[in-house]
Amino acid sequence: MDWKNTMTRLGYRISEPRKKIMEVLEGAEVALSPQQIHQQLEHKGFDIGLVSVYRTLDLLTSLELVTVVYDPERNPGYVLSSTGHHHHIICQKCHKAMEFSGTDDIEELIHRVEAETSFQVRDHLLQLFGICPECLNTLNDRGDK
Predict the structure, then answer these.
(1) Buried b vs exposed e over 8-26: b needs ≥16 C-beta within 10 Å?
(2) Can you tell me the distance from the alpha carbon of 38 to that of 53, in angstroms, rounded to the nearest whole number?
(3) CA 19 from chain center: how many Å?
(4) Rounded to an integer, what distance in angstroms lies between the CA atom of residue 40 and that of residue 53?
(5) d(C-alpha 80, C-alpha 111), whole Å
(6) d(C-alpha 77, C-alpha 117), whole Å
(7) For 43-52, how does the pLDDT look when each residue is reduced to its tens digit (9 = 90+)?
(8) Is the Cα dihedral 56, 57, 60, 63 positive or negative?
(9) What is the secondary structure of 73-132 as a DSSP string?
């Protein structure tokens, strides 16, 4: 994803805090909380306030450059977005987040919900939880289920 071009095209500056936060997310294998992002930036010597991290994540989310996902305890974290319709699956052991492509199959459910509730569905979040192959191998090696 070329997030810099997207931001520029939409009239936003590529500020140092935005650049640093995107660098942290680009290097992450798991969804990161704002506090974790803040800690990583401080550890790297970049002085940024936690409020700035939250504001930047709000902007990046609204521009669909990052996506909010939830760990197995339902705590929010952030991952980079990709183009196209997609959802996430989160490992219940290591919290690795992986995307999978979305399909139109959910449209039938959305239409049924709209008919039953008279709501107009404007967006949705589908997220699954499971055990990733690496953690599953570790569990199988130990004899756990």
Answers:
(1) eeeeeeeeebbebbbebbe
(2) 7
(3) 17
(4) 11
(5) 29
(6) 30
(7) 999 999 999 9
(8) negative
(9) T--EEEEE--SSSEEEEEETTT-BEEEEE--TTHHHHHHHHHHHH---------EEEE--
Specify the residue for token string 């599953």.
136
Task: Note if the pTM is more than 0.90.
Answer: no
Residue pLDDT, tens place only, 29-66: 889 999 999 999 999 999 999 999 999 999 999 998 99
Find the CATH number of the domain harbouring 82: 1.10.10.10
Residues of the domain holding 14: 3-142
Instruction: Tokens 């409020």: give the residue.
Output: 51
Number of domains composing the chain? 1
